[in-house]
What we know:
Shape: globular
Number of strands: 0
Helix content: over 70%
Strand content: under 5%
Order of helices and strands: HHHH
Oligomer: single chain
Structural class: mainly alpha
Distance between the termini: 39 Å
Amino acid sequence: MLRFFPSLFWMAFIYYLSGQPTTGIGGNELNRFLVLKSFHLIEYAILAMFLFLAFRRASIVIIISYLYALSDEFHQSFVPNREGRFRDTLIDLVGIFIGLLLWRWLNRISFYSRHRLG
């Protein structure tokens, strides 16, 4: 059961962040866009890695993560000064795939470092 704690904690953290205003993120419109969308990529890459720890199946991770992304955008549509956007769920989906690829890459590095010859 402990294997689910990191992903549940991270989901709660995403929910908390979604309820916060983004007005403090300044700069010009392009910089603001890049910063906010980078947050989406990072949040959902981390969520995918935590969910993989719990379920060990990429298909389940993708489904749960993306359903959570959809619910997160729905939640944001009720937060003052925030909007729920379908486009953001697609950015989240890219983050999910990045997280799974990063997990696979880190596991390969770990495997090869444990099994080096010589």
